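Good morning C.,

I know you're traveling, so I'll keep this short. The sequence:
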Amino acid sequence: MGNLMDIGKIPSLKRLVYDNLKERIISGELKPGTRLREEDLSVEMNISRAPIREAFNMLERDGFTVIVPRKGAVLAEATEEERDYIWEMRAILEPYAAVKSMSLISDEKIAKLENDLKKVLENPDDLKLYMDSDIELHEMLFQNLENHFMKDTLENMRAHSLRMRWAVENRHPGIRSDIEFESTKEHLQILDALKRKDEKAVYQTVYDHLINSRERIFPSAGQNLKKE
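The tokens, ready to paste straight into the viewer:
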């Protein structure tokens, strides 16, 4: 019996297609307004059109595509209103999730990420190192949550915010180094609060980081998220 494959741990084909397309959307490889064609993706991925169609439905459910009559699945444009909603949701949920996750994050994981973040500061031109550390830090704040509703919501909000962020940074690469430096310093402050198991500091450093990152990416657009 020990040699039996755990089928429950194998992602479905539609999930693999969904994850592939979502990653390409977030990275900017697939641009807003792009039409996703079942037949083209079927040839590209060497699979039938059924799981692709199901993946399209999942992408629409999560707000990455819209179904347009006679066109099918089209990558959604990110509006300013949606941008405001996403950062508002993150500012409400992510600091709370970080506090709830605090006891579930190992000292070893914190130490490893702290070391990676210091490497980012030493290697400002290593974009991949920065992106990986940024994703790891924020996922760490909610990936161990038992509340799967909150976890799923934050995962979706995080994906949308990354998509919007990379779009801005790709259009204006000159702002990237400043964003990278300031963001990494704030990530280290979050880790310091986590190491000290200080709930108030964890909540505040995560909240402040979200507000600051909003301001850095979309100048003067984050005022409505600040506390009175």
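Safe travels,
E.
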